[in-house]
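Re: the 151-residue chain
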Amino acid sequence: MTILKVGDTAPAFSLPDQDGRSTASKDLVGSRYVLYFYPADDTPGCTVEACAFDQNLAAFQEARVPVLGVSPDSAESHQRFRSKFGLRFSLLSDPTKGTLEAYGAWGERPGRGPGIIRSTFLVGADGMIQKAWYFVTAQGHAEEVLGALAA
């Protein structure tokens, strides 16, 4: 399993968002961004995490740091999830799990077998990993990421 650390180059990606528009890492060069990986739309932990990122979205926007969520779910699933909870940031679809694997967000989970490892990355304007979190606890994580922006 890949484990990214501070100073590593963030793996390139190009994934469709909830509206079918492509979002690519090359289009984000020059700005910092948060890329977080979660197991599935509209599940308890994933909802807590997504809603917390959304509740803190103004602070991320003030810092000029876009938030992007990634799961294997379809664009249609992402649309329903965003609509149900009023989420205002993009959700990207990775049904092949290629980006999940490249970031080390797919792998063996202790006592649970293979699957999505809830993970978050703060990527710098230079495309390098500034901070990496693996095996994230959904509750309070968005605030933790926001705190890392000031560090």
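The mean pLDDT is 95.
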